[in-house]
Design a protein that fits this description.
Strand order of the largest sheet: 5-6-7-8-9
CATH topology: Rieske Iron-sulfur Protein
Order of helices and strands: EEEEEEEEEEEE
Bound molecules: FE2/S2 (inorganic) cluster
Strand content: over 45%
Mean pLDDT: 94
Structural class: mainly beta
Number of strands: 12
Number of domains: 1
Largest sheet: 5 strands, antiparallel
Helix content: under 10%
Oligomer: single chain
Number of helices: 0
Length: 106
Amino acid sequence: MTWRVVCKRSDLPGSRGWPVRVGAASIAVFDVDGELLAVDNECRHVGNPIDDGLVDSGCVTCPWHGWRYDLRTGEHLTMFGRRRGLRTYPVRTDGDYVLIEVEEAE
Ligand code: FES
């Protein structure tokens, strides 16, 4: 595992995510009331990006068709409960920069 700088903290909008790439991986980074969270930026419905989805109560709603995900766990929230959802990534800051922990090959 290795930490990669992906953006500046000031890049992150408050109510939506920010898209970044680490190798071939497309990741969305969110600032949820000062807590940084990162998930795969590919909705499990049909694969559209979710970084532009609205964030509420630690969850993002996909802007395309409304699937909802818990940003801390990545779980997909449905009216029937929780289902396997998005991969999550550890996030930290170093000064003004945001870093994500990924596999060495990513
Ligand atoms: S692509 Fe996200 S809900 Fe359809």
